[in-house]
């Protein structure tokens, strides 16, 4: 059987089992680790270590890393291996500038196209996000905050915007992990709820204003500070390894 088509099932941090092709699942786990700020900028992504963690070949790992590099969150360095991207201050400014433009376009289109079912899904995501922060699971809350914006992009019914947003959201998470002041409170779920209300009311001007205020709030929390994420791949993906510290046998 073609190795890429062999299904691989691995638990996520919330206990759900991921399904899909091997590189799909490896990609998803690394993407989630970036969204949850568990992977620190500049972390070396050893193909050998990741292969052991996920129980797959280095070819599969390379495919997943290549996809992440295309989205701008991983750097592939010739003869030196891959690392998690480490945005400079200027790169961070550029990402946030681009993010504002994309968020504005997405919000305007969401007002036009979002269905009641999609709005209900967004409200549930906000509730789940709030629950995560309430029980102290900051990483999962941050991931859900990012996924909220990805789900919102889907309501715009514009495939290129969804693709742009996926890259920008993951890059933003890296920037926040690197530069956000740790003593600032997180209150995105209140802003997310207000945004949903404006979209449901089909009030484009208010929705865009709320989105720009939300981006201002995120931007205002950025500061040069040490990150709290980890560069230890085995620690980041401990839920993959399991209690005995061993990965699944390679297929």
UniProtKB/TrEMBL annotation:
Domain of life: Bacteria
One Pfam family of this chain: FCD
Keyword Iron-sulfur: no
GO terms assigned for molecular function: DNA binding; DNA-binding transcription factor activity
UniProt protein name: GntR family transcriptional regulator
InterPro entries recorded: GntR_C, TF_FadR/GntR_C, Tscrpt_reg_HTH_GntR, WH-like_DNA-bd_sf, WH_DNA-bd_sf
Domain spans labelled HTH gntR-type: 20-87
Entry keywords, A to Z: DNA-binding, Transcription, Transcription regulation
Keyword Transcription regulation: yes
Stretches of the chain forming a coiled coil according to its record: none
